[in-house]
Specification:
The chain is 27% helix and 24% strand. The chain has helices at 9-29, 45-48, 91-104; strands spanning 39-43, 53-57, 79-84, 107-109, 114-119, 128-137. Strands 1, 2, 3, 4, 5 and 6 form a 6-stranded antiparallel sheet that branches. It starts with 8 loop residues before the first helix and ends in a 9-residue tail after the last strand.
Length: 146
């Protein structure tokens, strides 16, 4: 478990980088082969109390049952999405754009957001990330009874 306090881009980048490195090391030690891009999702203080929990995952080929890690299958979802250049540009600003879009289009959120890394970046390039916010159509407003 890592504890970093704050939710700004610098703290989140450090947290995600450390978790990703630990996960890749663990997978390598257990002989698992990574089969796709990294996924991240966050549980916010309103869901868990006072801290943000950051989850980092990688899909792996099923060559053996896991021993030292937890396997979580994220369900397919209908989502509002936005592609942006990684954590260095601030997840909160990106999230605000998605929230605004969803509200303008009569959507409500159904689960925690997640990020799919489309390009890990490197060599001075920012990663390219898709923010996915599961949504459904909001119930129409019911006029007050007269």
């Amino acid at each position: 478990m890592l504890r970093h306090y704050g939710f700004g881009p610098v703290v989140m980048r450090r947290t995600v980088t450390e978790l990703s490195a630990r996960l890749r090391r663990l997978l390598g030690e257990t002989g698992r082969v990574v089969s796709g891009p990294e996924t991240r999702y966050f549980q916010t203080p309103t869901e868990l109390g006072e801290c943000v929990t950051v989850h980092v995952g990688l899909p792996v080929l099923r060559t053996a049952e896991p021993t030292d890690c937890t396997v979580t299958e994220l369900p397919p979802v209908e989502a509002a999405t936005l592609v942006y250049p990684g954590l260095t540009h601030g997840l909160l600003d990106v999230a605000r754009q998605v929230v605004r879009w969803a509200g303008d289009h009569g959507m409500r959120f159904t689960r925690p957001a997640r990020e799919q890394v489309l390009d890990p970046g490197g060599d001075g390039r920012d990663p390219v990330v898709e923010l996915q916010v599961p949504v459904t159509a909001a119930a129409p407003a019911v006029p007050p009874a007269t």
